[in-house]
Amino acid sequence: MLDRVKIRDDFPMIKSEEAKGRIYLDSAATSFKPKCVIDKVMDYYTKENANIHRGDYDLSYQVSSEYEEVRKLCAEFLNAESEREIIFTNGASSSLNLVAYGYGQKFLKEGDIILSTEAEHASNILPWFKVQEVTGARIEYIPLDKEGIFDMEGYKKLLDELGDKVKVVTLAHVANVLGNIVPLKEITELAHRVGAVVVCDGAQSVPHIKTDVRDLDIDFLCFSSHKMLGPSGVGVLYGKYALLEKMDPFMLGGGSNARFDICGNILLKDPPFKFEAGTPCVEGVLGFGEAIKYLMALGMENVEKEGKELHDYFLKRMLELDNVEVYNPKSETSIITFNVKGIFAQDAASYLNSQGIAVRSGSHCAKILLNVIGVSETIRASLYLYNTKEEIDRVIEVLKDTTLEKCIGAII
Amino acid sequence: MDNNLKRDIIMDHYETPRNKRIPEGDGYFKKHMAADSCIDDITVYIKIVDGRVMDISFDGVGCTISTASTSIMTELIKGKTVGEALSVIEEYEKMLNEEDYDEDVLEEANAFDTLSKQANRISCGLIGIKGMKEILESYDK
User: Fold this and answer.
1) Mean pLDDT in each 10-residue stretch from start to end of chain B (141 residues)?
2) Single pTM value for the model
3) A377 to chain B: which residues are within 8 Å by CB?
4) H/E element holding A380?
């Protein structure tokens, strides 16, 4: 059982005087951070400021070990085979670009197919547009139903038709607008049968559901620290080691090479180090380690189970409202996408802001999803482990009374 | 301006926007304005004859502020010379920048006299009007 009262106490953004009356429903954009994470970042600058690797003094050694400890911790968190499969990047977008560049652009060729969906975040589709342009490979879209739910039969049909031309299947475990969980294990098993690799955008799933990369058997997993209680500027690319060995780095430079000579010969280090040129966000990785510890102490099973319960309560109450249209009634985690009937999303979101409720309006970086749900502009509310039923009740009260007059009243 | 009056003006122009149509016939300058950060997407059409705004209209989708501000401004500058129209727009911009401005020329656009307090919505109040300004300035040159 998650003790939400105690949890809320750990978050300065909730506990502080200024936070009174504020309801934060934008964790899908970025989460709040617990004090242990903030303290760790501060400690790095006040107590252990040194660069990692290659320093011949205690501080550098100490911070290097801590940095590598986080890699181990992250491997444990994901049940990866080895910490060598964990690459630190600067966020999920960076991780997704790294796969598209280092694997997609290197190995795909004309006639090859990339399977994806129309619900993807820009960060998991634009890099593949580029792969398409550079290699001549082609993106095909796995069908979604009108609620944006992954169509397994449609996927199987595509795999049957296209067979081993399919080289990459890339999709979000939880889509950032729709919030439903795709059956990733089955998707991966079918993809592997035709010899394709599976790239998973875990930005919205890893913070909320237990993610076991070996059980799911996915080939690549990309996610961000800042959506799961950690600092921004840090992300992870998990990849199966054999794939990482073949893959090219996105950047070359200090720390990624073992040796190089004047003739231009470069001997790269082994993964993960060949992908980590330059000084990384050291304090961010250390803080991320604390975030992982925090989540592991709560237990991801509990985070997942109770996250779903809170989400289901929110969804149930939202569906009771006559003046609200919910676009993802089958969502399972965190995210509810909706509009107040007859009110432009941004106007309603501004009104909610005037009532202390933080939500996000727009197309949520999933611009091609418009074809599926038929509206271009929606409001997204997203929950995390520090939100409460009481907050949801308050949001429902406010939404119930949201009118165009009130929305305009909030801006004049 | 009284808040109730401001709200009524904005509601009115949002629910029944003036000059919201794609014009028929030739001779219109056209400017498409799309916001990077939101869905507002407005196209402005202006017909200028002998240095005067003979007709002005707009089309597209937008929030209350972008729709109402564009609608109000079409009424304010229709019939004015290009120079007069630009000076009305200039006063409007001053209002949004919290500078001294001439309330009298802005008429119903005074409904946005506190929009400057909503930092993330100022661009809504400018999107269509910037389009008008660009057309008028390029004509002026």
Assistant:
1) 93 96 94 80 95 96 93 97 97 96 96 91 93 93 69
2) 0.92
3) 38-39
4) strand A378-382
| Fold adopted by A4-30+300-409 | Aspartate Aminotransferase, domain 1 (3.90.1150)
On the CB side of A316, how many CA atoms lie within 13 Å of its CA?
A: 8
Q: Are A366 and A375 in contact (CB under 8 A)?
A: no
- Indicate yes or no: CB of A350 within 8 angstroms of CB of B3: no
Token duo for residue A372: 């599926």
- Sign of the CA dihedral running A230, A232, A233, A239: positive
Domains of chain B: 3-140 (3.90.1010.10)
Are B121 and A411 within 8 A, CB to CB? Answer: yes
Per-residue pLDDT of A54-101, as tens digits, reads 788 999 999 999 999 999 999 999 999 999 999 999 999 999 999 999
Backbone dihedral angles phi then psi of residue A53, each to the nearest 5 degrees: 60, 150
Helix (H, G, I), strand (E, B) or coil at A352: helix
| pLDDT tens per residue across span A247-304 | 999 998 887 888 888 888 888 999 999 999 999 999 999 999 999 999 999 999 999 9
Burial of B141 (0-12, 13-18, 19+ CB in 10 A): exposed
Provide, as residue numbers in chain B, all residues whose Cβ is less than 8 Å from the Cβ of A345.
39, 63
Report, at the CATH architecture level, how domain A38-297 is classified: 3-Layer(aba) Sandwich (3.40)
**Closest approach of chain A CAs to the CA of B89, in angstroms?**
20
Contact, A201 vs A120, CB < 8 A? yes
For the CA atoms of B81, B84, B90, B91, the dihedral, rounded to the nearest 10 degrees, stands at: -140
Chain B neighbors of A405, CB-CB under 8 A? 7, 11
Report d(CA A237, CA A89) in Å as an integer. Answer: 7
Cβ B14–A404 below 8 Å, yes or no? yes
Residue ranges, CATH 3.90.1150.10, chain A: 4-30+300-409
- Asked if A409 and B124 come within 8 Å (Cβ–Cβ), the reply is no
ipTM over 0.85: no
Nearest to B64 among A347, A362, A376 (CB): A347
Q: Is B64 on the interface with A (CB under 8 A)?
A: yes
Closest residue of A to B8, CA-based?
Answer: A405
Q: Identify the sign of the CA torsion A308, A312, A315, A317.
A: negative
Q: Catalytic residues of A, which ones?
A: 365
Considering only the beta carbons, identify the residue of A344, A363, A409 that sits closest to B63.
A344
